[in-house]
Structures are given as structure tokens and as C-alpha cells.
Design a protein that fits this description.
Layout: H1 2-34, H2 38-163, H3 169-208, E1 213-216, H4 217-233, E2 237-242, E3 248-251, H5 253-271, E4 278-287, E5 290-297, H6 327-338, E6 342-347, E7 353-360
Parallel strand pairs: 2-4
Antiparallel strand pairs: 1-3, 4-5, 5-7, 6-7
Helix pairs in contact: 1-2, 2-3, 2-4, 3-4, 3-5, 4-5, 5-6
């Protein structure tokens, strides 16, 4: 409708402009032909001037009206475009908000799954310790049961001879000598079993809880290594541990236990894959106010293209072997979040790898 009004006003303006142009062009000739009297010519000239003003004014009015209608038309078109764009943006925002909601839900689910997998990884490592310690305890306990059974049999024989009044001095001396030797052997085996249980108990408590306390690094790490010893004994690999005995810190022993466990298991599964010999070195030292833990093995190392990925969650080069790819990711989280420290990795393929952890006491 506005477009029709605009065209109509423009046509009227053009008509007045045409009339005015023809009047100016031919008015003098028409007046001179029709009116011969000079006075009349003068009157007609005055009328011609007024008509020129009227025609010009009409032209300007309708031309302005046409321009105004054009502006209104353009404003209307612009408003329509704005409305269409607004509706389009509103629809896009709704879709974006819905998509963001779905992404946030997916991210929450992924984080929950990752946390569950990390817990599963910790429990798997703890389960391996349980199996190893249980097998290791079987030996001293088995020896202890055998010795106790043998001593019980000797005791019954001595008691029987005593009751029959047939006990000789030589039998008693032999019993006493054998008993002393077997008791010493029984005591040493029970102490060995007790030590393994104590070490495992401390490691299990530390790994299953996040308690901030004061402890000595040497004994905490040594307890972990004692628990891992049954697993290491089945391999040809050697482990070397160097740490001042009196090095004390306030931190989370469970985090350090889990880090050492993951490192050792990672070396056994990945670092020494296909190797018939190898060495693991663990060194702890204090530099000014910081503690530095160095862990290195002389295994197959890590390819350069994987160095930036090893701490990523779910990254593993042995997923066919059942690895979740969370071992070193868990280590990284424990170092940076629990210990409030830093971890770096240096490795070359076929030249082993070295992990350097720097952290401070949290007192």
C-alpha cells in the first residue's frame, strides 16, 4: 500500500514538472500569437509567473511527498528485516541454549565417568598390592604353621614320655635344642609376615584416605616398595631407592603412595615391555624449601610425539592389554592438586624416561 502511494505521488509530481516545463517553453509564443495588445501581454506574463510558482510549488509538494513515502517504505522494509533477523536470532539462541545445556550435561557425565574410572584405577592398583602381599605373606605363614605343627608333635612326644616315666635326659636336651632353633625360625617368619601386613596396612590406609599429616618420606615410600616387592620379585628388574631417613614433611602420604605405585606399575607394564633386564631409580632430596622426587627407569622410553599426551586422560599405547590410560593422568592430578606441586617429563625413545616432581611442605 505504501509503495502504491509513493508511485502515485511521484507520478503527480512528474506531471506538474512536465506541465511547468512546457509552459516555460511555449508560453511566450502562445501569448504573442493570441494577444497582440502589449497591456494584455503584460497581464498574461504576470499570470504566467504565478502559474510557474504554483506549478513549481505543486511539483515540490508532490515530489517531497513521494520522497517521504519512499523513506516510509524503506523504514517499513527495514523494520520487517529487523523483525525477521530478530526472530532468526531468537530461534538460534534457543537452539544454542539447548545445545549448551546438552553439552554441559555431557560434560558432567564425562567428569563423573572419569572420576569413577580414576577411583577404579586406584582400586585396581590397591587390588594388585593385596594380591602380591597375600602371596608374599603365604610363605612366612606357611613356614610358621609347619614349625608350630612340628613343635606341637615334639611336645606331645615329650609329654607322653614324661607321663610314662620314660623321659631320658638326652631326649629332653634334644627337645630343648630343637625347640630353641624352631622358635627362632618361627619368630623370624612371623615378624616377616607382621612387617608385610603393617606395610600394606599403612599403604592401604594412606591410599584410601586423603589425610594431611606430618610423616617421614623415607618410611612412607619404603612401605609402598615393600608392598610392591612381591610383584617386583617375579621380574628380572632391580629397584634402587635413595632418600634421607630423617626427611620430614607435612603433606598427603596417600597421594605420594599412589604416585609411586602408579610409576612402578607403569614401568613394569610399559617401560620394560619386551625387556629382560632393567633398573628403576627413586631419589628424594630437599632443595631449600622444596622437595624433589626423581623417578626414572632405563626402559624403552616414550616417543617424542607422545610426550605431550602422556598426562592426558584415557591416553594409552596398550589399550588392547586392558590399560585405561588414567595412570599418569592420576599422577598429574595428585601432584598438581593434592601436593600443590609441579611435574615434568624427560624421555627419549629407547633411552628410558625420567619424571621430576617438585613440591613443598603444606604446613
Amino acid at each position: 500500500m505504501k509503495k502504491i502511494k509513493c508511485n502515485h505521488a511521484l507520478k503527480i509530481a512528474l506531471s506538474y514538472m512536465t506541465i511547468g516545463f512546457l509552459w516555460i517553453l511555449f508560453s511566450d509564443q502562445l501569448v504573442s500569437v493570441i494577444f497582440q495588445d502589449i497591456k494584455m501581454i503584460t497581464y498574461v506574463s504576470v499570470i504566467k509567473g504565478w502559474l510557474y510558482v504554483i506549478v513549481t510549488g505543486a511539483f515540490l509538494y508532490y515530489f517531497s511527498k513521494a520522497q517521504f513515502n519512499i523513506i516510509l517504505l524503506r523504514n517499513s522494509e527495514l523494520e520487517q528485516r529487523v523483525m525477521e533477523r530478530t526472530e532468526s536470532l531468537t530461534s538460534a539462541n534457543e537452539i544454542l541454549e539447548q545445545t549448551m545445556g546438552e553439552l554441559e550435561q555431557s560434560l558432567d557425565n564425562l567428569k563423573e565417568t572419569q572420576e569413577q574410572l580414576i577411583i577404579s584405577e586406584k582400586l585396581t592398583a590397591l587390588g594388585e598390592l593385596v594380591a602380591g602381599v597375600a602371596q608374599e605373606i603365604n610363605t612366612p605363614l606357611g613356614v610358621g604353621v609347619t614349625l608350630a605343627s612340628h613343635m606341637s608333635q615334639l611336645h606331645r612326644e615329650i609329654k607322653g614320655n614324661f607321663e610314662k616315666d620314660s623321659l631320658h635326659r638326652s631326649d629332653l636336651e634334644e627337645f630343648l635344642n630343637n625347640s630353641e632353633e624352631e622358635l627362632q625360625l618361627l619368630n623370624s617368619n612371623l615378624e616377616r609376615a607382621s612387617s608385610l601386613v603393617a606395610s600394606f596396612n599403612q599403604v592401604a590406609v594412606d591410599q584410601s584416605s586423603q589425610e594431611l599429616r606430618r610423616f617421614k618420606l623415607y618410611y612412607t615410600i619404603q612401605d609402598v616398595l615393600n608392598s610392591l616387592n612381591p610383584k617386583l620379585k617375579k621380574t628380572p628388574y632391580l629397584l634402587h631407592f635413595d632418600c634421607p631417613v630423617d626427611l620430614e614433611i607435612v603433606s598427603y602420604p596417600g597421594a605420594i603412595s599412589q604416585i609411586i605405585t602408579n610409576f612402578v606399575i607403569n614401568s613394569l607394564i610399559h617401560g620394560f615391555a619386551g625387556r629382560t633386564q632393567g633398573n628403576i631409580h627413586i631419589q628424594v632430596e630437599k632443595l631449600e624449601s622444596s622437595f624433589v622426587l626423581l623417578y626414572e627407569d632405563d626402559g624403552i622410553g616414550i616417543p617424542e610425539e607422545n610426550l605431550s599426551k602422556v598426562f592426558n586422560p584415557f591416553f594409552s599405547t596398550n589399550k588392547q592389554g586392558g590399560c585405561t590410560g588414567l595412570g599418569l593422568h592420576t599422577v598429574h592430578n595428585l601432584v598438581t592438586q593434592s601436593l600443590n606441586g609441579q611435574i615434568s617429563l624427560h624421555s627419549k625413545e629407547n633411552h628410558g624416561c625420567q619424571f621430576k616432581i617438585k613440591f613443598e611442605s603444606l604446613e
